Structure formats: C-alpha cells, structure tokens
Amino acid sequence: MTCPVCNQRKARRACPALGQQICTVCCGTKRLVEIRCPDGCGYLATARQHPAAVVQRQYVNDLEALRPTLQDLTEVQQQICLVLLSVVVRHGAAESLERILDEDVAHAAAALANTLDTAAKGVIYEHQPPSLPAQRLVSQLREVLDRLSRETHGPLLERDAAAALRGIERGVRAVPRPAGNPDAYMSVVRRLIRPYEPPQPVADERRPSGLVLPGGVL
Fold first, then answer.
1. Mapping DSSP to helix (H, G, I), strand (E, B) and coil, where does residue 129 land?
2. Of 10, 92, 105, 159, which is most buried, counting CB atoms within 10 Å of its CB?
3. CB-based contacts of 200: which residues, under 8 Å, 6+ apart?
C-alpha cells in the first residue's frame, strides 16, 4: 500500500489523525506541521521523549551561542538576564510594524545599561538608542525592571540589571552570523526562551523573598 500523503513510499505506520497508514518519512516530517496528531499518538510521544538528532544538535548549538551572554554573570544577574531576554522574545513576536533585529537588541541593551550606570552615579539621564524598534524595546525592558525593583532591593537590582544588559549586548556581538544574518541572535533566543508573561497577582500577602522569575523562561 502506498502512502496517501506523499503517494511515493510504502505505508507502514498507522496514523490516528488520518485514520489510515502512512510512510515513516511523512510521519516524521509532517507531524504537527501538516498532520494534526492527537496527544495519544504513540509515535508523537516517542518523538517528544527522544527528539531527532538534528533537533538535539540545534539545541546544543543554541546553548553554546547563548553562553557569551551569561558568562561572567552572577546567578542573580543570569536570572535577570533570562527575564530580560524573555521580554525581548515577546517584543519581537508582537512587533508588527518593524522587524526587530539583533542590532536593535544590542542598542537597546546598551542604552538602558548606560542609563542605569548613570543613575548609579546620581545623575538622571535617559540614554536613547538610535532606532525606533530599539527605543520601543527599551520601554518594555524598563517596565519589567521597574516591577522587579519594587519587589526586590532597588540599588542591588540596578547594578545587577546593568550587568545583565551588558551580557545581552555582548551576546549579540558574539553570536555567529552565517551569510550576515541580521537576526541570528534573535533566532537563538526565540528557540530557547518563551515570551515573557507577567506573573499573576498573589492573593496571599506572604510573598517569597528574592527574585521571582516569571514562568516560561527556557
């Protein structure tokens, strides 16, 4: 029996979504892309438990590409950095008018880090990045940092946030850019980090101490 999806290869697997036999290639390549696999599909469960080698290699490569961002940061600074990256991912996904590129991310991170460094010296001055997408990103990042500042120790967070932002700028500059890809860094963080979701209000007044990360990071 020939696979009804590709009409080329021999059908060997029972597909619960299509109600008929399909070939192993179509099962592996069209799963959840063209075929709406039910959660009870045994082949889908196996693929989730044992991802294909190419997926594993991509994950390892992405982690290596992210390493310059997090290196030399303290644990708290790394946590702040991951929160800020989740904001970057959300902003990039929501951007409808202009595509956010790596250079925008680097400029936004550098500008906000400079603003925080200047504030630490007792001078209030808002450093502005050159592009409009970067300026919008700064506003998003600042909003989340302000929330975190209210929940933690402001001066300590200010220093740590500046270091985390410098890490993001460093990571953008260090990521490999095949064929001059202008959003190579954004592609990496989108694959590794889910978009930022503001935490739900806690009804109990007894809040945990320390930095509380939102769900969905990594």
1. coil
2. 105
3. none
Which three-class secondary structure state does DSSP give residue 176?
coil
Strands (E), 38-93: none
Q: What is the pLDDT of residue 184?
A: 93
Over range 52-71, report the average pLDDT: 86
Stated pTM of the model? 0.69
Give the model confidence (pLDDT) of 96-106 as tens digits. 456 789 999 99
Interhelix angle 132-151/102-120, rounded to 10 degrees, is 50
**DSSP character at residue 9:** S
> Given phi > 0 = left and psi -120 to 50 = alpha, else beta, which region is 91?
alpha
Q: Which residues pair with 22 in a beta bridge?
A: 13
Single-letter amino acid code for the residue at 40:
G
